[in-house]
Amino acid sequence: MATLRAQDARKVFGIRWIAASLLAFGLSAPLAQATTVTYSTPAGDTSGGQPVDVQATFTTDANTITVTIRNLEADPTSSTQALHGIDFTFDSGTTNGSSISSSSAIVRTVNEDGSYTDSGPTSTGWTLSRVDTTHLVLAPTSNALSIIGDPGSNNRYNNADGGIAGNGVGNPFLAGLVQFTLVVPGVTVVTQVDSVTFNFASNFDLTGVTSDHGTPTPEPSTLVTAGIGMVALGLYRAFRRRAKPKTA
What we know:
This protein is α+β, with helices and mostly antiparallel strands. It folds into two domains: 2-29 and 219-247; 35-213. 19% of the residues lie in helices and 39% in strands. The protein contains two helices and 16 strands. It has helices at 6-28, 220-242; strands at residues 2-3, 35-40, 46-47, 50-51, 54-61, 64-71, 83-90, 99-110, 116-122, 126-132, 135-140, 173-183, 193-200, 205-207, 209-213, 246-247. Strands 9-8-12-6-5-2-15 form a seven-stranded antiparallel sheet, with no helix packed on it. A five-stranded antiparallel sheet has the order 10-11-7-13-14, with no helix packed on it. Helix 1 (6-28) packs antiparallel against helix 2 (220-242). It is globular.
Protein backbone atom coordinates (compact mmCIF):
# COMPACT_ATOMS: atom_id res chain seq x y z
CA MET A 1 0.00 0.00 0.00
CA ALA A 2 1.39 3.38 -1.01
CA THR A 3 1.86 5.91 1.80
CA LEU A 4 3.04 9.52 1.96
CA ARG A 5 3.89 11.21 5.22
CA ALA A 6 1.48 14.02 6.11
CA GLN A 7 4.34 16.51 6.56
CA ASP A 8 5.67 15.80 3.06
CA ALA A 9 2.18 16.04 1.63
CA ARG A 10 1.72 19.48 3.19
CA LYS A 11 5.06 20.66 1.76
CA VAL A 12 4.16 19.42 -1.68
CA PHE A 13 0.77 21.12 -1.56
CA GLY A 14 2.28 24.41 -0.32
CA ILE A 15 4.99 24.59 -2.97
CA ARG A 16 2.52 23.56 -5.63
CA TRP A 17 0.10 26.32 -4.62
CA ILE A 18 2.81 29.00 -4.50
CA ALA A 19 4.24 27.95 -7.84
CA ALA A 20 0.87 27.90 -9.55
CA SER A 21 -0.10 31.30 -8.10
CA LEU A 22 3.15 33.04 -9.03
CA LEU A 23 3.21 31.51 -12.50
CA ALA A 24 -0.39 32.50 -13.17
CA PHE A 25 0.27 36.04 -11.92
CA GLY A 26 3.45 36.40 -13.99
CA LEU A 27 1.95 35.09 -17.20
CA SER A 28 -1.19 37.17 -16.81
CA ALA A 29 0.73 40.44 -16.30
CA PRO A 30 0.32 42.71 -19.35
CA LEU A 31 3.12 43.26 -21.81
CA ALA A 32 4.46 46.80 -22.09
CA GLN A 33 4.13 47.63 -25.75
CA ALA A 34 5.92 50.95 -26.01
CA THR A 35 6.13 51.38 -29.78
CA THR A 36 9.41 52.51 -31.33
CA VAL A 37 9.96 53.52 -34.94
CA THR A 38 12.99 55.10 -36.62
CA TYR A 39 12.83 57.45 -39.62
CA SER A 40 15.78 58.46 -41.83
CA THR A 41 16.32 60.89 -44.66
CA PRO A 42 16.00 59.05 -48.00
CA ALA A 43 19.30 57.67 -49.26
CA GLY A 44 21.17 60.03 -51.58
CA ASP A 45 19.11 63.14 -50.76
CA THR A 46 20.59 66.60 -50.54
CA SER A 47 19.86 70.01 -49.09
CA GLY A 48 21.27 73.10 -50.76
CA GLY A 49 23.25 70.81 -53.06
CA GLN A 50 24.95 69.04 -50.13
CA PRO A 51 24.32 65.49 -48.85
CA VAL A 52 22.19 65.01 -45.74
CA ASP A 53 21.80 62.04 -43.40
CA VAL A 54 19.58 62.39 -40.34
CA GLN A 55 17.90 59.76 -38.19
CA ALA A 56 15.05 60.26 -35.73
CA THR A 57 13.63 57.64 -33.37
CA PHE A 58 10.16 57.98 -31.83
CA THR A 59 8.93 56.01 -28.82
CA THR A 60 5.30 56.26 -27.75
CA ASP A 61 4.08 55.51 -24.24
CA ALA A 62 1.20 56.65 -22.04
CA ASN A 63 0.66 60.38 -22.85
CA THR A 64 4.31 60.60 -23.93
CA ILE A 65 6.34 60.69 -27.13
CA THR A 66 10.13 60.54 -26.83
CA VAL A 67 12.08 61.84 -29.83
CA THR A 68 15.79 61.14 -30.29
CA ILE A 69 17.56 62.79 -33.25
CA ARG A 70 21.07 62.43 -34.63
CA ASN A 71 22.67 64.11 -37.63
CA LEU A 72 24.87 61.42 -39.20
CA GLU A 73 26.41 63.64 -41.91
CA ALA A 74 29.97 64.06 -40.63
CA ASP A 75 32.22 67.04 -41.45
CA PRO A 76 29.52 69.10 -43.19
CA THR A 77 30.34 71.89 -45.61
CA SER A 78 27.29 74.11 -45.26
CA SER A 79 24.76 75.06 -42.61
CA THR A 80 22.12 73.79 -45.06
CA GLN A 81 23.14 70.29 -43.90
CA ALA A 82 22.13 71.04 -40.33
CA LEU A 83 18.66 69.92 -39.23
CA HIS A 84 16.51 72.93 -38.41
CA GLY A 85 13.28 71.22 -37.39
CA ILE A 86 11.16 68.13 -37.66
CA ASP A 87 7.46 67.63 -38.38
CA PHE A 88 5.63 64.43 -37.45
CA THR A 89 2.12 63.04 -37.28
CA PHE A 90 0.64 60.20 -35.23
CA ASP A 91 -2.47 58.07 -35.42
CA SER A 92 -4.03 58.50 -31.94
CA GLY A 93 -4.00 61.11 -29.19
CA THR A 94 -4.22 64.87 -29.61
CA THR A 95 -1.84 67.81 -29.86
CA ASN A 96 -4.18 69.87 -27.66
CA GLY A 97 -2.30 70.49 -24.40
CA SER A 98 0.95 69.05 -25.73
CA SER A 99 4.27 70.40 -24.46
CA ILE A 100 7.98 69.69 -24.08
CA SER A 101 8.54 68.02 -20.72
CA SER A 102 12.33 67.98 -21.12
CA SER A 103 15.05 68.20 -23.76
CA SER A 104 18.78 67.61 -23.83
CA ALA A 105 21.71 68.19 -26.18
CA ILE A 106 25.34 69.25 -26.41
CA VAL A 107 25.66 72.89 -27.51
CA ARG A 108 28.57 73.22 -29.96
CA THR A 109 30.30 76.38 -31.19
CA VAL A 110 32.43 75.81 -34.29
CA ASN A 111 35.46 78.08 -34.43
CA GLU A 112 36.91 79.73 -37.54
CA ASP A 113 39.75 77.17 -37.76
CA GLY A 114 37.33 74.23 -37.63
CA SER A 115 37.93 73.40 -33.98
CA TYR A 116 34.93 73.56 -31.66
CA THR A 117 33.87 74.13 -28.08
CA ASP A 118 31.12 72.15 -26.36
CA SER A 119 28.94 72.94 -23.38
CA GLY A 120 26.20 70.97 -21.67
CA PRO A 121 24.28 68.75 -21.99
CA THR A 122 21.63 71.37 -21.58
CA SER A 123 18.12 72.10 -22.84
CA THR A 124 17.86 72.47 -26.60
CA GLY A 125 16.16 75.85 -26.89
CA TRP A 126 13.67 74.30 -29.33
CA THR A 127 9.93 74.81 -29.13
CA LEU A 128 6.93 72.61 -29.89
CA SER A 129 4.06 73.87 -32.05
CA ARG A 130 0.91 72.23 -33.35
CA VAL A 131 -0.30 72.20 -36.95
CA ASP A 132 -3.48 70.24 -36.30
CA THR A 133 -4.77 67.66 -33.82
CA THR A 134 -2.24 64.98 -34.79
CA HIS A 135 0.60 67.04 -36.32
CA LEU A 136 3.44 68.56 -34.28
CA VAL A 137 6.60 70.53 -35.18
CA LEU A 138 9.84 70.72 -33.20
CA ALA A 139 12.16 73.59 -34.20
CA PRO A 140 14.56 76.22 -32.83
CA THR A 141 13.38 79.80 -32.46
CA SER A 142 16.32 81.38 -34.34
CA ASN A 143 18.86 80.58 -37.06
CA ALA A 144 21.12 79.03 -34.42
CA LEU A 145 20.75 75.69 -32.59
CA SER A 146 20.32 73.52 -35.67
CA ILE A 147 21.56 69.95 -35.26
CA ILE A 148 24.97 69.44 -36.85
CA GLY A 149 26.88 66.23 -37.64
CA ASP A 150 30.15 65.10 -36.10
CA PRO A 151 33.55 66.64 -37.02
CA GLY A 152 35.88 65.05 -39.56
CA SER A 153 39.50 63.98 -39.37
CA ASN A 154 41.66 65.44 -36.62
CA ASN A 155 38.42 66.11 -34.74
CA ARG A 156 37.83 69.29 -36.75
CA TYR A 157 35.22 70.63 -39.15
CA ASN A 158 37.67 70.73 -42.04
CA ASN A 159 35.06 71.41 -44.74
CA ALA A 160 33.07 74.05 -42.86
CA ASP A 161 32.29 77.23 -44.78
CA GLY A 162 31.51 80.62 -43.28
CA GLY A 163 27.95 79.59 -42.49
CA ILE A 164 29.26 77.09 -39.95
CA ALA A 165 32.66 78.26 -38.73
CA GLY A 166 33.48 81.42 -36.86
CA ASN A 167 30.68 83.95 -36.68
CA GLY A 168 28.36 82.05 -38.99
CA VAL A 169 24.66 82.63 -38.44
CA GLY A 170 24.25 78.98 -37.44
CA ASN A 171 26.53 79.18 -34.40
CA PRO A 172 26.07 77.65 -31.92
CA PHE A 173 24.70 74.28 -33.04
CA LEU A 174 23.32 71.25 -31.24
CA ALA A 175 25.40 68.07 -31.53
CA GLY A 176 25.39 64.40 -30.59
CA LEU A 177 22.17 62.73 -29.51
CA VAL A 178 19.42 65.31 -29.19
CA GLN A 179 16.48 64.13 -27.13
CA PHE A 180 13.00 65.48 -26.40
CA THR A 181 10.36 64.10 -24.05
CA LEU A 182 6.95 65.37 -25.08
CA VAL A 183 3.67 65.31 -23.18
CA VAL A 184 0.97 64.44 -25.72
CA PRO A 185 -2.48 63.70 -24.21
CA GLY A 186 -4.16 60.53 -25.36
CA VAL A 187 -1.06 58.87 -26.80
CA THR A 188 -0.77 55.23 -25.71
CA VAL A 189 1.74 52.40 -25.96
CA VAL A 190 0.25 51.39 -29.33
CA THR A 191 0.23 54.86 -30.93
CA GLN A 192 2.20 54.96 -34.19
CA VAL A 193 4.18 57.94 -35.48
CA ASP A 194 3.16 57.53 -39.11
CA SER A 195 4.91 60.33 -41.03
CA VAL A 196 7.98 62.50 -40.54
CA THR A 197 9.43 65.48 -42.43
CA PHE A 198 12.99 66.71 -41.84
CA ASN A 199 13.42 70.48 -42.19
CA PHE A 200 16.86 71.84 -43.04
CA ALA A 201 18.34 75.27 -42.63
CA SER A 202 17.85 75.96 -46.34
CA ASN A 203 14.09 75.54 -45.87
CA PHE A 204 14.51 72.36 -47.90
CA ASP A 205 12.20 69.69 -46.49
CA LEU A 206 12.64 65.94 -46.85
CA THR A 207 9.95 63.40 -46.03
CA GLY A 208 11.52 60.68 -43.93
CA VAL A 209 11.35 56.98 -44.69
CA THR A 210 11.02 54.34 -42.00
CA SER A 211 14.14 52.31 -41.44
CA ASP A 212 13.12 50.22 -38.47
CA HIS A 213 9.88 49.26 -36.71
CA GLY A 214 9.92 48.36 -33.06
CA THR A 215 8.26 45.35 -31.49
CA PRO A 216 6.43 44.96 -28.15
CA THR A 217 8.72 44.11 -25.25
CA PRO A 218 7.81 42.85 -21.76
CA GLU A 219 8.22 45.10 -18.75
CA PRO A 220 11.12 44.03 -16.49
CA SER A 221 8.64 43.40 -13.65
CA THR A 222 6.72 40.97 -15.84
CA LEU A 223 9.87 39.03 -16.66
CA VAL A 224 10.81 38.87 -12.98
CA THR A 225 7.38 37.67 -11.92
CA ALA A 226 7.22 35.00 -14.60
CA GLY A 227 10.76 33.95 -13.69
CA ILE A 228 9.82 33.55 -10.02
CA GLY A 229 6.88 31.40 -11.04
CA MET A 230 9.11 29.20 -13.19
CA VAL A 231 11.62 28.80 -10.34
CA ALA A 232 8.87 27.90 -7.88
CA LEU A 233 7.42 25.36 -10.30
CA GLY A 234 10.86 23.85 -10.76
CA LEU A 235 11.29 23.55 -6.98
CA TYR A 236 7.91 21.86 -6.71
CA ARG A 237 8.85 19.31 -9.36
CA ALA A 238 12.20 18.62 -7.74
CA PHE A 239 10.57 18.15 -4.32
CA ARG A 240 7.91 15.91 -5.83
CA ARG A 241 10.58 13.62 -7.23
CA ARG A 242 12.22 13.36 -3.82
CA ALA A 243 8.91 12.75 -2.06
CA LYS A 244 7.60 9.91 -4.18
CA PRO A 245 5.22 7.58 -2.29
CA LYS A 246 6.88 4.61 -0.69
CA THR A 247 5.50 1.14 -1.25
CA ALA A 248 4.75 -0.68 2.00
